[in-house]
Amino acid sequence: MTRGKFIALEGGEGAGKSTQARMLVSALAERGIHADLTREPGGTPGAEAIRNLLLDPPGEGWGAEAEALLFAAARADHVARRIVPALDRGDWVISDRFVDSSRAYQGGAGQLGDKAVVALHAIGSGGLRPDLTILLEAKEDHVAARLAQRDGDNSDAIGGRDITYHRAVAEAFRRYASEDPKGFAVIDAGGTPEEVHARIMSAISLLPES
Ligand SMILES: Nc1ncnc2c1ncn2[C@@H]1O[C@H](COP(=O)(O)OP(=O)(O)OP(=O)(O)O)[C@@H](O)[C@H]1O
Ligand SMILES: [Mg+2]
């Protein structure tokens, strides 16, 4: 049995990750490929419980270290109980965010630094990397308009951080992609959802033996 492919969608708030993840799963189904659509933080009952703690923190909120450990704990459960079993069955896994979000938000733009986040991932999840990470790059003003339409003034504890933080997140994502050009496809997230989807499908056709 051929192991499935693991594809992660990454990028800042409102880039279109969830929209594109759904479109990708449907397009794969049309080609006879069963793909498990999942998300981070979350994807298993335990990890979804941690998601609620992260995005709507009790009390005064998490410190940087506690936050990074909670993300790593959620991911460890997600990888062990959902992602690896699906890949072993031969299914594909499409994850709406994965470890590079932790690297960008807690590592690059946060206080921990990339090395610490990568080390936590090695402990928690055996350092599992997607076969391909799709980085959706959207212009700030396009994203602001999309999010205003979707959320109004309601953002979560991480999405609601200031613009300087979100710019540092975008910069960190770009840096990780440039350091690993084979592992990433950087996709222009501008245009209609169908246009972005077509770019993603052409990036995936470049995966070996897909
Ligand atoms: N190409 C597009 N053009 C216009 N609007 C879009 C496009 N893609 C997605 N949208 C809309 O923009 C909003 C944000 O998209 P989506 O929820 O897919 O982004 P996301 O990256 O998953 O965001 P988050 O990080 O907050 O989960 C949604 O309302 C969605 O319908
Ligand atoms: Mg989303």
Automatic annotation (TrEMBL):
Function: Phosphorylation of dTMP to form dTDP in both de novo and salvage pathways of dTTP synthesis.
A biological process from GO: dTDP biosynthetic process
The reaction(s) this protein catalyses: dTMP + ATP = dTDP + ADP
Pfam families hit by this protein: Thymidylate_kin
InterPro entries on file: P-loop_NTPase, Thymidylate_kin-like_dom, Thymidylate_kin_CS, Thymidylate_kinase
EC numbers, comma separated: 2.7.4.9
GO CC list: cytosol
GO molecular function: ATP binding; dTMP kinase activity
Family: Belongs to the thymidylate kinase family.
Start and end residues of each Thymidylate kinase-like domain: 9-200
Binding site for ATP: 11-18
Annotated keywords: ATP-binding, Kinase, Nucleotide biosynthesis, Nucleotide-binding, Transferase
Keyword ATP-binding: yes
Native source species: Altererythrobacter rubellus
Class of this enzyme: transferase
Protein name in the entry: Thymidylate kinase
